[in-house]
Amino acid sequence: MVLMEVSEEVRDALDAGRPVVALESTIIAHGLPRPRNLAVAAELEGIVRSLGAVPATIAVLDGRARIGLDGAQLARIASGDGVRKLGRRDLAPALAAGADGATTVSATAFLAARAGIRVFATGGLGGVHRDWTHSQDESADLPQLARTGIAVVCAGVKSVLDVPATLQRLETLGVGVVGYRTDRFPGFYLTSSGEPVDWTVRSPEEAAAVIRAREELGGTASALIIANPVPESEQLDPALHDRVLDEALDACTEHGIAGQAVTPFLLDFLTRHTDGASLEANVAAVRGNVRLAALIAAAL
Ligand code: PSU
Ligand code: MN
């Protein structure tokens, strides 16, 4: 049985050396509310195409890992019906069970790299949660990126996390981090997390040069994070962010939310308690990342 199916369009582009951008599906199925999520998913693919690259949204459908979805498949993922959240470790059980699932950063990066895709765009990465000493909750995104050769364009890590601890883990794991036109690590909904980054690139060409250097150097595969801040005009108001996030973290503890449910719970809480302002900042961040990823893929 074929476990991984690359769409014809994506296969042709890869064979011809044309730019391809991988997109994840957990953000669609579990990160954004319906029905907006399907509109955003289609918009993101449109942005990639408008810049001359081919979008490869990745998900599991009917027990097959799909690299590149058609409109109907995208709609199935967005419907959320029976769509599980799949990290890298969930892929084999999901494929064996013939299940449907949306892939997180860890699963998407793994599958994209296996298909030969070099650039991947998302919103914000998972990372170390604020109550780590108690819950030991660190996203599987981090160790997976430590052993996957792909460039990930993102607006940093989700601000619901312990950002300094996550940056420390990325350093320990040997995952490269460069800021895009900034020397501050972005804060997902916020333009800046306040934390510094050691390296800055100023254009898609400069980012592409880092990717090429990493690939040519060879050795152990690991990811490069290109951290692209949401524009200040589109960020969530920082005071509102801090206030609602505190409430969200309290609610998470109060309801005993754990494991894979934590991140979707927090994102949804923020959307509902900011009158959708956090949703707009999230979508603005993803849009910018997808755009930059397409420009970098073209520069490669
Ligand atoms: N970025 C977003 N929204 C999301 C995610 C990223 O803007 O919902 C998803 C990604 O799929 C990421 C996951 O891998 O959240 C992290 O989940 P966890 O903390 O359970 O590992
Ligand atoms: Mn987790």
TrEMBL record:
Task: Please provide the Gene Ontology terms (biological process) for this protein.
Answer: nucleobase catabolic process
Organism superkingdom = Bacteria
List of catalytic residues: 24, 158
The enzyme's E.C. designation? 4.2.1.70
Could you cite one Gene Ontology molecular function of this protein? pseudouridylate synthase activity
Q: Where does Mn(2+) bind?
A: 137
Task: Give me the Gene Ontology terms describing cellular component.
Answer: cytoplasm
What does the subunit comment say?
Answer: Homotrimer.
This protein is called Pseudouridine-5'-phosphate glycosidase
Q: Which species does the entry assign this protein to?
A: Streptomyces qinzhouensis
